[in-house]
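Reopening this one. Same input as before:
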Amino acid sequence: MKKCPFCAEEIQDEAVVCKHCGRDLSAPRPMELATLKDNLGKVIQKYSSYGYEVFSKMDTGAILERRAPINVVTMIGLVLLFWPGAIIYAIPGARKRYHAQLNANLDGHIDEFGGTVEQFERDKKRAQIIGWIILGIAIIYVACIIIELQSY
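Same output, byte for byte:
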């Protein structure tokens, strides 16, 4: 005979479900709340290093948010080509927002939903490529204007 870890009643050694409380004895034991908070804090720290800010936080969950960063190359290209576009691009409300929701499971694993760090990094690389394309178009445009002016 052994004691059920959930209700402390005596049960058979081979039992997989407690006959008193009905709990599954093969399920992982829940972690302490302090351990869950520590695990959640580590993941929040990882997101904070990428510029996310805590929007809402509970004991076992958090919602984080950040705006897409301004790509300097894109900004320079927009200033050269279409300066009102650069102004719109610089307004914080016009940039994409990333939301991430973190939930700590009772087994200690942290589920990440929404705008994860990986998605943010993919979008950042895509923005850099688009920025270089815009800057290249702007340079070609300015070069064509200079060539045209020299022909007069």
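So the earlier flakiness isn't reproducible anymore. For the record, The mean pLDDT is 80.
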